[in-house]
Amino acid sequence: MIRGVHHTAISTPNLERALRFYRDLLGFRVVFEFGWPTGTEVADRITALHDSSARAVMLRTGNVVIELFEYSSPRPRPADPRRPVGDHGITHICLDVTDLDAEYARLSAAGMAFHCPPQDIAPGVRTTYGRDPDGNVLELQEVLDASNPIALTWS
How much is the pTM? Predict the structure, then answer.
């Protein structure tokens, strides 16, 4: 039986830069760090890579867990940091916020690029999309009306 989503994993070319964004700017806390050297057979089997090696950090805030990977082997192909959200694959990670305008202003001032200012998308629901330093899309969403079906319970 599937109980729910455990975490979302993101591959980055620069783990320190990703940590500055997710940990220092967004406020995620480091749960643990790990990695493996080239020649770790179980890692190669799981990832379907040959001679893989990576460093990783598991981060958490509220009910969101993100795992950041920086692979050193095999050499990763760079992603398009401006990949359209309509392309196949994961389109975004949505973060629940309590003051969307304040978060938008804070993150914009820190240099985060957004597609647009916060938008009203349904009664009592506001949202905007922005990009992390690698171009991954993060949605910031504020649900003001708890009776709206999009308001999930976070307790």
Answer: 0.82
